[in-house]
Amino acid sequence: MTPTHLPGRVAIPSLPEQTRTPPSPSTLESFNTAPADEIEQTLLACLRSPRWAARLADHRPYPDLDALLAASDEAAYDLAPRDLAEALAGETLPVLPEGAYGAAHTALNAANAAYEAKFGHAFIICLDDLSPNEALDHVLQAIRSRLANDPDDERVLTAEELRRLARGRLLRHLRAAGNRATSPDDAVPGR
């Protein structure tokens, strides 16, 4: 069965990995020593804010993963409203889990349309700590609950969800880079 794309704009990251192994020290070293423009492009895949990406790239090297994640959080907290709007505009369409039924699409589309009409931007939520079976229900419940927020409170909550999304995406990128660096294909020169 092919995954179904949701026609709305709800930022749902890919489902969390089952293992939570930290990136290797060599992965952080690669992050610290890569060219700034390359790292900024990588960071823009985590959060579509050029200001956030440039700030993280400019403050390298990071002594350890905790320092990088703290810098990521701080840079996200410091985003101006324009930066947040830019990051929100860059969120992509999610894929609903396989087997999601038609009523789920209808409910999610209706809730998302109401959310966008009220707040003027995509609904953002980080699902990194949820099992795939809980994601859809959690999103629906969260949209409906957050529709009761006033715009200022929702802006703060949205910024926090973007920060959490960026942190999770950055960790996944670093883990994936570490896995590529230790794969047998990468160990053979010229491949």
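(ticket continues) Second input and output from the same batch:
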Amino acid sequence: MALRTRFTETFGVEHPVVQGGMQWVGRAELVAAVANAGGLGFITALTQPTPEKLSEEIARCRSMTDKPFGVNLTILPAIKPPPYAEYRQAIIESGVRIVETAGNKPQEHVDEFKKHGIKVLHKCTSVRHGLSAERMGVDGISIDGFECAGHPGEDDVPGLILIPAAADKIKIPMIASGGFGDARGLVAALALGADGINMGTRFMATVESPIHENIKRQIVENDERATDLIFRTMRNTSRVAKNAISQEVVARERGGASFEEVRELVAGTRGKVVYETGDPDHGIWSAGQVQGLIHDVPTCAELIHRIVREAEEIIQARLNGMLAQRALETA
């Protein structure tokens, strides 16, 4: 049984499993491995220091796979923002056919991508933002529940409520994000009205993930409680792996600290060093509550194929079996 959904049909992939953009992690070797396994992977544009380097990374990925893959472009408020239009142009000129957008006011980017026939998947943290993205003309949305790593928004709505609430109103294909790491999550997401799942933290703990082995082992060892929510007082909440730095940031926030007073602790360059050197306490790094469901470090192919196979088994054996048993009881 093949798990064909509106998402796989619209975006032209084999399995309804997505590896979303992850800063410092979404590189060619991981994305190509996901693509070769039949999933949809996204290179993270802003991991690359310049638009020219992004073009090189896209070419590197293309040398490793002939399957569809995409690029994530996240639009974030900044005093000195990156040259988003130049990154966008690099994506277009490289012939990428799928883009994941995230962040604030992506309309101009969506319009330009659509003008060039590129399919756009937009990440949202609420139903209202999903509806806004739908009006914007995107081809699909990724809806992030409160469990997710990174930015879960400020509404604190978990996936069990957010996914069906969005499915009731969103007409375009939708994938569920936040808390997904195995077949049970995929089946649950489909039952709740989604067309597939997006996984970030789970793909960090794979053989092809370009981060230090110590961090992969840390994710496996961590449980579902091993995250912190930082920037709550600044209404820019971010879920990160619990460590010495995140605990210090939370403590300072409770004491009324401003962003300037924690800026050095949360610098992105420190998080990059975590992934490079394997010291989990060197800086802030993203991880979701799904850590509690991660127990090994498989290849991307092993992970995706296991999820799809076990999801089919759950649907066929467990759910269909329950229906068959019910039919016998009422016969």
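Agent notes: The domain at 12-211 is CATH 3.20.20.70 (TIM Barrel). The two ends are 28 Å apart (CA to CA). Closing as not reproducible unless the customer responds.
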